[in-house]
Design goal:
302 residues; alpha/beta
Length: 302
């Protein structure tokens, strides 16, 4: 695999609900309100505020299909874009997001829903392009590590490269997908199968990206509304850590924190609840006054 390549699942892992495409070697999927027409097809949806645009950023080792169950439960009025992240640095990730949004003609401003380490990409992009991003929904955001975790990530990268994904999948899932949240056996089996089929090179790159992530200044500069979601059973990013993240979003215009009965991979483990909370948060802010905060009935204002 060449540097910069995304993880590409086998054909058996594809979900027919997505309209798949490729841009500069990046596999992407579209779904939702009439799906989305690319610029080449000559149908730019424009600034249609009745049909909000969402970009879904998957977790480390994830793919487009990580969002399939949750996306199926979102309001059909949304236009959605998901894509497989490349093995590149954080700035290049943010650039990829912008290129894809422009290529498929998503209306602006768009919402970013990010899982785990995908939250880093969302935060950097929102800080760099504040007028393009309507708001963030951060699901079990993984954006910083201590020295012990950094060493663990580097060791996991080495093992994946040396011995393949089978050597790291089960130990990783024991923490990110513990028994207590394995309520849907088929969903767990499907996720494990996709992870096993992932590229060891891409997975190692993602581990090292997280190990070197330092976003304090970025977090403080984000201005858009943010929903920070934490999982009660998430041992990797406990609720207390994510509440600290919510408190660090000092310039965001409307921050809400909510803890749900889930683990680290909440969009896979509890897709219905994540979809409902995200939809409600977006609806509250679609026609918002930027300086007004409307607390969630389920969330806890920070």
């Amino acid at each position: 695999m060449t540097k910069g390549s995304p993880v590409v699942p086998t054909t058996s892992h594809r979900d027919s609900a997505w309209q798949y495409g490729s841009l500069a070697g990046i596999r992407y999927g579209l779904r939702g309100r009439d799906r989305v027409k690319t610029q080449d097809e000559g149908d730019d949806p424009g600034n249609d505020q009745d049909h909000p645009s969402l970009v879904l950023l998957h977790e480390m080792g994830g793919q487009i299909e990580s969002w399939s169950d949750m996306a199926a439960m979102l309001d059909s009025r949304f236009r959605m874009l998901a894509y497989d992240q490349r093995s590149v640095g954080m700035e290049e990730h943010a650039d990829d997001l912008g290129r894809l949004v422009n290529s498929v003609g998503l209306s602006k401003p768009y919402w970013l829903i990010a899982a785990a380490a995908g939250a880093g990409i969302a935060l950097v992009h929102a800080a760099r392009h504040p007028h393009c991003v309507a708001g963030l929904v951060l699901c079990a955001a993984a954006i910083e590590v201590d020295d012990k975790r950094r060493a663990y990530l580097e060791n996991r990268a080495v093992i994946a490269l040396r011995d393949g994904m089978a050597a790291v999948v089960d130990s990783s899932l024991s923490r990110s997908y513990p028994t207590v949240v394995q309520r849907d056996a088929a969903a767990f089996a499907s996720y494990r199968e996709r992870m096993l089929a992932s590229s060891p090179e891409a997975y190692a790159s993602a581990n090292r990206l997280l190990a070197n992530m330092a976003l304090d200044e970025v977090i403080a500069s984000v201005q858009c509304p943010c929903l920070v979601m934490a999982g009660t059973h998430d041992v990797m990013r406990p609720p207390a850590d994510l509440r600290r993240l919510a408190n660090a979003l000092v310039n965001a215009q409307g921050v809400e924190f909510v803890e749900i009965d889930s683990g680290h991979l909440m969009a896979v483990q509890t897709p219905a609840e994540v979809a409902q909370l995200a939809s409600q948060f977006i609806a509250r802010h679609e026609h918002r006054h930027l300086h007004r905060h409307i607390p969630s009935s389920r969330g806890l204002p920070v």
